[in-house]
Each structure stands twice: as structure tokens, then as C-alpha cells.
């Protein structure tokens, strides 16, 4: 049966009252504390949040092993949909979207958690419309969930496997019309890996696109043991993982990273040897130069002034100044499989923004939040019913 989207008609409206988020900062070596923070419903970050020390660990938390019915797959599901490009007001929660069919090399996943990336917002704004799939769109790249059905050519995965991945092999070229912000999503087996055992679904959902970008960017610069690196935007989804991979996987000699004042401690907790406050210092004026500059904010013109002669500058977004270069991430389950041991040992940790996880009914608010460009680590959606 062909999966078709009816015209979106149902909308879940965010609560007009202030939301209260319970934050749990785990300090496994020493102590565990939690606190409540109130925030406004439409995405303006609480000013006090920037000064809260953040540390999100890889220890397994409550959002684990849901009960998933492997036999009773419905024909219709709840999904977030937009039928036209625009602001976050084009997003609607529709309760009657057809559950996608699986092709022979694909699996159907009961989505337990998903995550947003800036590309979700840029795509919804129509910035990639020339290469996008046709509207209407169920957005969402990142998923963590349970396999409920396998195609005839699927080799390794089986029903009941807990998996995670970025469902779009090419981020901008024909991303799937039916994404991960839904109760079910279909995806090629080769884009998935088994979920690291120590991570819950919410933690795992935030990893795929960001960690694949971090890893591919480091590889493309030829990064290797003993090299130094400067990460511009060390507190975002990608940068928080570049810091950790550079240190833990590639054995960097020195990692420097930029953020605003309130996030400097986070950078250090992730392994940065030097945390640079971009509100007070210009990184390009430092006497020290780096083998690699990883620009995850769009400052390539400045980044090239901070690299050593013969070094590499990778720019994820914005205009590119030579010798900087840009790439667009390719989703690969193999990369997740390769990095799973680092995640399972706790050497590399997911960073989940403490404003979330956002429940499924508040995906539009989560979009508004990521569009503030102030998210710390990943904006995660959980639970998904
Ligand atoms: N080419 C690709 O394949 C690819 C793949 C992934 C992402 N991207 C792009 O890369 C960019 C980063 O993605 P992301 O997911 O990491 O974004 P993100 O998580 O949304 O980044 C948010 C972070 O940016 C920081 N920030 C804002 N202004 C800054 C500045 N001037 N200097 C340093 N940090 C600053 C904020 O920290 P403060 O609150 O401290 O300012 C916040 O923590 C996006 O534009 C995304 O579209 C491209």
C-alpha cells in the first residue's frame, strides 16, 4: 500500500501556561542533583539557564525499554506534518497519516525518541526546496526506536532490535518525505546501528546526524593523533561531539573551543583544554594557531586566520573562505557502529539540552527553540506515544 499523507488538519496547540522542566544533571563520580526551571512555552530560553553548569552523562536514565507491540502495526499514525514551506506555524500534528510501507532493504521503526537539527528548520523554511522531496513533509532526520518490521532483503536487523540513526543518507538531496517526527518511520538498514546499551532512547536520538557530521568533518580534514584543533561553537549539537571525538577517538594534542560565558564549563567537561568566551575574546587574535579549525557556526572568514600554515578549515555553514572547505554529511550506520564502543564505555557522551526532552505534542515549540540558535547539545523529542 502506498503511504499517502492526507491534508494536515489536526493541530496540537501548546499549553498557554508556563512549562516546568525538570532538569537532572548527573555527576557520576561525585553527586547527582536535580532542579526545576520554569520557561515560557514559545522557545525563549530562560536567562538563568546559560549559567547552570551542564553535564549530561551516558548513564542510562528512565526513558528505556518501552513496550512495543511488534504484531499490531496500525495503518495510520500521528505525525507532525507541513503542507507548505514557512515558519513554525506551518507545522501541524496530524493523527491520520499513513504508516509508511517498507522497501526490501528497509525496516519500519516504532519511533521512541527523535531529535531536531538546524537542517530541519532550514528545510521547513524552504531553503533546500530545489532538492527536497515533495510536500507535504513529515520532518525529522534523527531517530531512536524499535524495529517492528523488516523488508525482504534486510540482512542483520530483526524485529525487536533497538536501533538509532539518521534516516536521510544525503541531508539535502531528496530527504525522506516521511521523517522521524512520527510514531513510525521507514529507513534503510544501512543507515542504522544498534542503540548503545548504556544509553536510553532520548540520549541515543540526539546523536546520529551530529556525531556523523563531527566524525566525517574530522576525517575530511585528515585529523590524527597529536594534532590540535579549534572548534567554533563547541556547545552545539555538532561541536559538543567534535570536542569529544577529537580528544577520545583521534587523540588530539589540544582541543580549544568557543562558546558564550555560561557554557565554558560545559566545554571543559567535554574535554576542551582551552575554552574561549566568544563574547570577550576574538579567537583569531590569539597568538596560538591550530592544525585544524572546525567551524560549526559560519565564521569561515575568521576561522582561516586561526589555522596554521598548511592546516585545514572545515566549514559546516555559511560562506566559505579558502583554504576552508565545506561538505554535507552522509548518513552511515557504519560510522555509528564504529563509534558505539566509545559511547558504551562513556568516553563519548551525548549532550541533551536541559530544556528538553520535549514531549511529542510540543514539537513546534522544540522547533522554535532550536531556531533561537541557543540550544545546548541536542533538542530531543521524547516520549513519542
Ligand atoms: N554541512 C553539514 O553537513 C552540517 C551538518 C550538521 C550541521 N550543520 C550546520 O552546522 C551548524 C551547527 O549545527 P548544530 O546542530 O551544532 O547547531 P546548534 O546545536 O543549534 O548550535 C547552537 C549553539 O550555537 C552556539 N553559538 C551561537 N552563536 C555562537 C557564536 N558566535 N560562537 C560560538 N557558538 C555560538 C550557541 O551557544 P551560545 O548560547 O553560547 O551562543 C548554541 O549552544 C548549523 O548551521 C547546522 O545547520 C551542517
Automatic annotation (TrEMBL):
Which keywords accompany this UniProt record?
A: NAD, Oxidoreductase
Superkingdom classification of source: Eukaryota
What's a Pfam family this protein contains?
A: ADH_zinc_N_2
Stretches assigned to the Enoyl reductase (ER) domain: 86-381
Which organism is this entry from? Gossypium raimondii
Please list the GO terms describing molecular function: oxidoreductase activity, acting on the CH-CH group of donors, NAD or NADP as acceptor; zinc ion binding
PANTHER family attached here? NADPH-DEPENDENT ALKENAL/ONE OXIDOREDUCTASE, CHLOROPLASTIC (PTHR44573), NADPH-DEPENDENT ALKENAL_ONE OXIDOREDUCTASE, CHLOROPLASTIC (PTHR44573:SF1)
The answer, when asked if Transmembrane is one of the entry's keywords, is no
This chain belongs to the protein called Enoyl reductase (ER) domain-containing protein
Regarding protein family, the annotation reads: Belongs to the zinc-containing alcohol dehydrogenase family. Quinone oxidoreductase subfamily.
Amino acid at each position: 500500500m502506498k503511504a499517502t499523507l492526507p491534508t494536515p488538519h489536526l493541530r496540537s496547540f501548546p499549553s498557554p501556561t508556563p512549562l516546568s522542566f525538570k532538569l537532572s544533571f548527573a555527576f557520576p563520580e561525585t553527586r547527582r542533583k536535580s532542579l526545576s526551571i520554569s520557561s515560557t512555552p514559545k522557545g525563549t530560553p530562560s536567562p538563568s539557564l546559560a549559567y547552570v553548569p551542564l553535564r549530561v552523562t551516558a548513564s542510562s536514565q528512565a526513558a528505556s525499554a518501552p513496550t512495543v507491540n511488534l504484531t499490531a502495526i496500525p495503518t495510520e499514525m500521528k505525525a507532525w506534518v507541513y503542507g507548505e514551506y514557512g515558519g513554525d506555524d506551518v507545522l501541524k500534528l496530524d493523527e491520520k497519516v499513513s504508516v509508511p510501507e517498507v522497501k526490501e532493504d528497509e525496516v519500519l521503526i516504532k519511533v521512541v525518541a527523535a531529535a531536531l537539527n538546524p537542517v530541519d528548520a532550514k528545510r521547513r523554511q524552504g531553503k533546500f526546496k530545489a532538492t527536497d522531496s515533495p510536500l507535504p513533509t513529515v520532518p525529522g532526520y534523527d531517530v531512536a526506536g524499535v524495529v517492528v518490521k523488516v523488508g525482504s532483503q534486510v540482512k542483520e536487523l530483526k524485529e525487536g532490535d533497538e536501533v538509532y540513526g539518521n534516516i536521510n543518507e544525503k541531508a539535502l538531496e531528496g530527504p525522506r518525505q516521511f521523517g522521524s517526527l512520527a510514531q513510525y518511520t521507514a529507513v534503510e538498514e544501512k543507515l542504522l546501528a544498534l542503540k548503545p546499551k548504556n544509553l536510553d532512547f532520548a540520549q541515543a536520538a540526539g546523536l546520529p546526524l551530529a556525531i556523523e557530521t563531527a566524525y566525517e568533518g574530522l576525517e575530511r580534514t585528515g585529523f590524527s593523533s597529536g594534532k590540535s584543533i579549534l572548534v567554533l561553537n563547541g556547545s552545539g549539537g555538532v561541536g559538543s561531539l567534535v570536542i569529544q571525538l577529537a580528544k577520545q577517538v583521534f587523540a588530539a594534542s589540544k582541543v580549544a573551543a568557543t562558546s558564550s560565558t555560561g557554557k565554558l564549563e560545559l566545554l571543559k567537561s567535554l574535554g576542551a583544554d582551552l575554552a574561549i568566551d566568544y563574547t570577550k575574546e576574538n579567537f583569531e587574535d590569539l597568538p596560538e594557531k591550530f592544525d585544524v579549525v572546525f567551524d560549526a557556526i559560519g565564521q569561515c572568514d575568521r576561522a582561516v586566520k586561526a589555522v596554521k600554515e598548511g592546516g585545514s578549515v572545515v566549514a559546516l555553514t555559511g560562506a566559505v573562505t579558502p583554504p576552508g572547505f565545506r561538505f554535507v554529511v552522509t548518513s552511515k550506520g557504519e560510522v555509528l557502529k564504529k563509534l558505539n564502543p566509545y559511547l558504551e564505555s562513556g568516553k563519548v557522551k551525548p549532550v541533551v539540552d536541559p530544556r528538553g526532552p520535549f514531549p511529542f505534542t510540543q514539537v513546534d515549540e522544540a522547533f522554535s527553540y532550536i531556531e533561537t540558535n541557543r540550544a545546548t547539545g541536542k533538542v530531543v523529542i521524547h516520549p513519542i506515544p
